[in-house]
C-alpha cells in the first residue's frame, strides 16, 4: 500500500537537530521496527487496492488507553489528491501514519482504504520484509540485488535504488491493483534493466550526482561506503519510491535545513511522484505544501483547522501564524537558507 516514503523531510516547526535530516528514512525504518501489536482476524481477506482512497472516520486512539493521542479525527483523501498534515510537535501527525500502516488499531472509529475497513483485512506487511539495512546497501546496482522472497535478507547487499523491499510497495503498471498478499514482493525479472532505475534517478534529480561517483550506481553507501548528504539521501529515497510506484504515497518531510536549490530540486521531485497519486504528507516546511488539496492542522490529537493554503491564510488562525513564523525564520540569516516560499 503504502509507500512510506520516507524521505522527505524538509521542515521542522523549528529546526530540530540536523541529525534528523534524514529522518524520514530513518524514522520510517524505525517505525517498521516497532512491534506490531495488532492481530489479523482469522479468515481476514487481503486488502485490495484500487484507486487509493483513504478515509478516517471518527478515529480515536491512545498509546495508553486512558490518554488519547487522537480524538475523533475524520478526513478523506480522494483518489489522486494530496493531503498535508502540519502542526506542533507531539500533536499526533505520526500517529495518524502509524494507524494507517496499522501498527495499531483505533480504539474508536474506522480507517478505510478503497472502501475496506483495514481492521477487517489482512495487514499489509509493509515494512517487515524491508531488510532495513540501508547503510549496507549498494546505491544502485541491478546485479547484486537478487534478494529473493520477502524475508531474511539480512546481510545481503542490495541496492538502494533497486530493491523493492523498502516499504511494502508493489511494483506494477499504472493501474495495477495491488493485492495485499502478506508482504511478498516479487523481484521484478527486469530488475537489472538500468533504464528504469536511471529514469527514476533522473526524475528524482539524483542521476547526475550518482553518475559522478566513481562507481556510479554501484556505489555502496553507509558505514564503509559513501556518505550521502541529507539532500542526496532524500532524493535517493524519492527515486526508490518512484520505482515502487505505490498507489498511496506517505511522505514524512525531513526537517533539515537544505540549501535553496536542493530544496527546490526535492520539491520538484516530490511534485512529480505525487501527481495524480493519493498522497498523505507530514510537512514541516510549509512552503512545500501550498499546493496540497487540503491541509489539516493537527494539534493535541485533534484537527484544529482544515482547508487549502489560501483558505487557512485567510482564516488567520494557527496555520497563518505558523506561516508567518516560518517566513521570519527564513529571513534570519542564522536560520536556514530556505527562501522558496511560493507566494
Ligand atoms: P512530531 O512533529 O514531533 O513528529 P507528531 O505530531 O508526529 O510530532 P506523534 O509522534 O504522533 O506526534 O505523537 C503524538 C503523541 O503521542 C505525543 O504526545 C507522543 O509523546 C505520544 N506517543 C508517540 N508514540 C508513543 C508511544 N509509542 N507510546 C506512548 N506515547 C507515544
UniProtKB/TrEMBL annotation:
<feature type="compositionally biased region" description="Low complexity">
    <location>
        <begin position="126"/>
        <end position="148"/>
    </location>
</feature>
<feature type="compositionally biased region" description="Acidic residues">
    <location>
        <begin position="172"/>
        <end position="191"/>
    </location>
</feature>
<protein>
    <submittedName>
        <fullName>Homocysteine S-methyltransferase 1</fullName>
    </submittedName>
</protein>
<feature type="domain" description="ABC transporter">
    <location>
        <begin position="54"/>
        <end position="325"/>
    </location>
</feature>
<feature type="region of interest" description="Disordered">
    <location>
        <begin position="124"/>
        <end position="191"/>
    </location>
</feature>
<comment type="similarity">
    <text>Belongs to the ABC transporter superfamily. ABCB family. Heavy Metal importer (TC 3.A.1.210) subfamily.</text>
</comment>
